[in-house]
Amino acid sequence: MRSKTVDRLLKSTPKDVEIFVDWYADLVVRINQLLRENDISKKELAEKMDKKPSEISKWLSGEHNFTLRSLAKLSAELGEPLMEVPKKKVQTEFIEDGFMCRVHTFVSYTKLDTKTSGKVWQFAEETEPYNELSNAG
Amino acid sequence: MNIFALEIWYDEGSICTFYTVRWDTDDDDAESETDRFFDTYAVPEHPLEEKAIQLFRLITESIGNRYGASNDFFDRIVNKAQELPPKPKQWVEEIKDLGINFPLRLFCYRVTENIVILFNGGIKESQATQDSKNLSMKFYEAQTFVKKIEEALQSEMIEISDDGRYLKNFDGTTDIIL
What we know:
heterodimer; A: alpha+beta; 434 Repressor (Amino-terminal Domain); 2 domains; two-stranded antiparallel sheet; 5 helices; 4 strands; 42% helix; B: alpha+beta; two-stranded antiparallel ribbon; 3 helices
């Protein structure tokens, strides 16, 4: 039986905290794994990155907040990607007549006449086909 | 005589089971030591609430469900008071921190990568755990728990289940009192 405390915390943990911790743990594990696989010591990594060994230890022990810059440097030195940003999200996938069909959701922004007051919904077919930005969403 | 129960704290992750300890008292509603920790810090209005919730997530998801109790997440604290050489498993560990100057420490004992026993912890105020007033009592208490648990494992009073995820008494029962 789950304790009331565990139950409360499982229900109340904010989503952003979940994502932050999951990313952090994934990064620490991934970096340690790459160091082991490539047989690179912390000292060697520190030398390659022109950092003090204590700074590298802080990264690997979680006492250092990763920045995009530090991650990029680490990734470059280790020669492997540390994080991947999804480019496009497949929403539905199905196979029909031997073909794989993928359905994506796109959010499209089209610049309209600025004189229009308020928000007016308009079918995409009626807008100009150019000057359109699309995002996979 | 101080006796305590070893009970499951969280076993819903796919890799690691967490146990906790609860002092055996007349109070049936007495909290486990790990619940005490989280009910102290992971509560609204506490300045360390978010940090405590981060630690909770690290335990339940990263260790419990994704990676198990690997070295990536643990710091070893050797019991210098007893001048232990680093005999296998004769030490108290703490869940590794997240971010710069993470202020909380939670003590634990790693039985295997699939079984971890969590104790209590507190706020780390100085470099050495023993110098943090808030933490030192919990640290020595954790040592007491570890000593008894270690003895019980070595004498085979308690053992690990066949699937490697649980602890049980030598007769197969699961109500563990030490």
